Amino acid sequence: QLQLVESGGGLVQPGGSLRLSCAASGFTLDGYAIGWFRQAPGKEREGVSCMSYSDGSTYYAYSVKGRFTISRDNAKNTVYLQIDSLKPEDTAVYYCAADLAYTARALCVTTEFWDGYDYWGQGTQVTVSS
Asked: What is d(CA 1, CA 18) in angstroms, rounded to the nearest whole number?
């Protein structure tokens, strides 16, 4: 089955850290742009960090720069999102998505095409609360 599967979400206190994983199955991520998006209740979806899997180029939304780090493990066909210094406003469902047709930055910011991306994961909940 061709899919992206996220994991690693949970409940964490402010200031804590999490590492989210997005594993691709049934296809290789080579050639894809892949990224992380989040949606909080009542808010629009936001592209927070994206990567061109082949060359490793990255994009970060201004709101997360310095706290979020996207990385990849070629052997595991998996992309990670390290989230440090978590804030309550980071609470959201985090999704990963991948598409062949975009650069890292375009994947994250081209909102009008988000629903047509090749793959979306099912999402993982991140809750930041004391």
From this structure: 27
